[in-house]
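Q: Given only this backbone (365 positions), what sequence would you predict?
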């Protein structure tokens, strides 16, 4: 296996040594994904559509990104709405109702508005109890961060059922005159209900077996010194929205694509290796790799680094584009629902995103 080159930043390599969560201490509880759900809005934005907006073409986009189309939320369909559909499906798959939810973590960079949080909006729309609900912004790594936090609350015995949503309506933040970014992003949502491992999902007839589910470990990072590589500048306290900001297009996503590409491959390879090392595993022990869906070439490069067969990597970027915090839970749900991911299998999630954040989470489904 190739050693992974540590990331180099302006802060020097020593400071970038990650303070990883790693393997949690043993407790009476392990976490189990009780149910998953996802939603992609029906409206499509194809490469041919984009050819009419910017100087690009289908062949270039497919060759450089693997993306063929993206799903775009309808007018009046907000991030809480796409998250709501995914959340309801995850609850249904778990055999639970909104009343059973003890906590809501809503991972997003495109919340309905700065405040109240989209988690609170979802809590109301779902009719969930008056439970702890908050937004989590770790960009495209958001869902991996969110699932890690949920795992801590399950393992500590504090909560029994936690709804973790990764959802984005990104299209209002995309500049459809910038060909480097507008080809990449789409809208969508994924969700899971995390519960106690010995809790049988009420829709499953088989009892929990010796291959009981768990989250083995999580390795999370953030390197703020690389924050400038991917930004949305306007709308915060540093740059409130103004006519000038709008004129400059500072309310749109902006990125240095080529540099992000390099960091993405390096950092996802690195955190996946950490997950394997922490658990004494090799990629042969992994049944499914679910990487953040940003660009097929990034996914392929990570797969090649580990020599993992393409059939073991869940990929949907051709259909969805980059849906930021939603990519991992959407791919997870699709793998579960089409029967590829089965109980007892080892699934490695990994993502990178603005911040720059990155992380891996290894679980037994
Ligand atoms: N159509 C046609 N040509 C284009 C397009 C386009 N849509 N976009 C750029 N080009 C041109 C460039 O102008 C450049 O032309 P030049 O050589 O004359 O200067 C040429 O194509 C090559 O450009 P590169 O930037 O080298 O192209 P690259 O192969 O790196 O692909 C891309 C660009 C797709 C943006 C890639 O770098 C990438 O995917 N990076 C990662 C981006 C990412 O993941 N962002 C999100 C991260 S954070 C998060 O997920 C929220």
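A: Predicted residues:
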């Amino acid at each position: 296996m190739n050693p992974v080159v540590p990331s180099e930043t302006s802060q020097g390599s020593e400071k970038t040594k990650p303070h990883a969560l790693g393997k949690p201490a043993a407790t009476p509880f392990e976490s189990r994904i009780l149910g998953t759900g996802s939603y992609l809005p029906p409206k499509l934005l194809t490469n041919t559509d984009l050819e009419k907006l910017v100087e690009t073409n289908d062949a270039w986009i497919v060759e450089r990104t693997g993306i063929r189309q993206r799903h775009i939320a309808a007018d009046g369909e907000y991030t809480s709405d796409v998250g709501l559909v995914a959340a309801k499906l995850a609850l249904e798959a778990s055999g639970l109702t909104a009343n059973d939810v003890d906590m809501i973590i809503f991972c997003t960079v495109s919340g309905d508005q700065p405040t109240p949080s989209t988690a609170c909006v979802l809590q109301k729309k779902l009719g969930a109890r008056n439970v702890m609900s908050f937004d989590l912004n770790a960009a495209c790594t958001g869902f991996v961060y969110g699932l890690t936090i949920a795992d801590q609350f399950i393992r500590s015995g504090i909560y029994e059922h936690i709804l973790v949503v990764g959802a984005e309506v990104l299209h209002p933040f995309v500049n459809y005159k910038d060909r480097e970014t507008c080809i990449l992003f789409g809208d969508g949502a994924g969700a899971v209900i995390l519960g106690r491992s010995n809790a049988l999902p009420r829709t499953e007839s088989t009892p929990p077996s010796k291959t009981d589910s768990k989250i083995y470990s999580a390795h999370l990072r953030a390197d703020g010194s690389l924050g400038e590589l991917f930004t949305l500048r306007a709308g915060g306290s540093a740059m409130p929205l103004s006519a000038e900001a709008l004129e400059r297009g500072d309310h749109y996503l902006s990125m240095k694509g080529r540099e992000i590409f390099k960091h993405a491959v390096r950092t996802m390879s690195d955190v996946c290796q950490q997950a394997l090392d922490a658990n004494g595993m090799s990629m042969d022990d992994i049944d499914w790799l679910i990487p953040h869906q940003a660009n097929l070439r990034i996914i392929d490069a990570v797969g090649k680094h580990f020599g993992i067969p393409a059939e073991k990597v869940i990929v949907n970027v051709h259909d969805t584009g980059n849906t930021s915090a939603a990519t991992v839970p959407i791919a997870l749900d699709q793998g579960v629902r089409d029967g590829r991911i089965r109980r007892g299998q080892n699934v490695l999630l990994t993502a990178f995103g603005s911040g720059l954040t990155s992380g891996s989470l290894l679980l037994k489904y």
